[in-house]
Amino acid sequence: MKITDLKCALIGDNPVIRICTDEGISGFGEVEQYKPYIKPYVMHLREALIGQDPRDVERVMLRIRNRGAFKPYGAAVSVIEMALWDLAGKAAGVPVYRLLGGKVRDRVRCYNGSIRPPMAGSGPEDYAAACKWMKARPEGFSLVKMGVAFHSAQKRDFPGFSYADPTDSPFHGAYDGAPMTERGMAHVIDCVAAMKEVLGDEVGLALDCGPGWMPSDAIRFARKVEKYNLAWLEDMITGDYVPYVNADVYRDLTQSTSTPIHTGEQIYLRQNFKDLIETRAVDVVGPDPCDVGGIAELKWIAEFANLHGVLMAPHGTGNGVLGLAALVQVCATLPANFIAFEYPSGNHPWWYEIVDGLPDPIVKDSLIEVWDRPGMGVELNPERTRPYLREEDADFFD
Ligand SMILES: [Mg+2]
To answer: Band of the pLDDT at 175, cuts 50, 70, 90?
Structure first.
């Protein structure tokens, strides 16, 4: 089997790729909806794929892996990795989880890091209302994640939140950290208390916090919220689009508190998790298969983390419904340190109409039953997808 073409179409806001072969089957993969601009970067990898056997996934990856980088540029390589696994599974007539070593669980747990109501403000009552809404969702999520501090409007809305003005950069995760004021930190803690009041001990609460906390503020905050038994504090020091890790600073933070510390969504490749995991600089890692280099890359990191007593909670909020399928496949195979993955939803309602293979409902009691169809098991339906193709992508299925 040989790869004959690579195509990339913007469907809604998600770049979707198709790897075509000389045997008439294709592999698909989807990039986060936040990266519609990545298409040319995906397409520059086309030449390296043509003529290769897609079933030799690692051999193909060795040709392109050095063309990726921390978020957002790891996405181009990652999406190809996932489409290769989709193809390899279809060629063998088996679900991808079998090619990754087989499943260790029949249902995978997900958490809600993105399905939230619009918030009127960023005070305790607004957070409490959002948590009430999230707790009542039909998916029955057992864990929800909320953005606070530098990962929220609080840094702008709350007067005197920090000692600096937030950046006006249009890019999410720009370097807008700052030392926090006493009142700024007290405000965040009030919001945590309000959320816990609603969620109780029935639904776990994780906080997406930054990046951008000064280490001393991060330590003080993590200690102050110990009594709330939070699931984790995410990306306090680095994270999101920060193109480095700072494992040693994370280690200081993690060793200073019993509140679990989490990072990893922006990190590309296993090598860049080495210090974090080997020095146990965080309690939980959260790579995103659509950024880290793919699902086999994520599995390797999970296994290595498990050896070192570090937990795994993959990121995935913008990965769309094909990205959801990839998360289901890989998370079925992860070791015991797996907590839950971040549930991606289609960012337009019609996404659920243009794919075949998703169960209905998808999530029950925060769990997704692992499906057994070949490849990733969720497929774009060409007839129903065509109306959503842009003019320049009209030949995507040809
Ligand atoms: Mg995050």
So the answer is: low
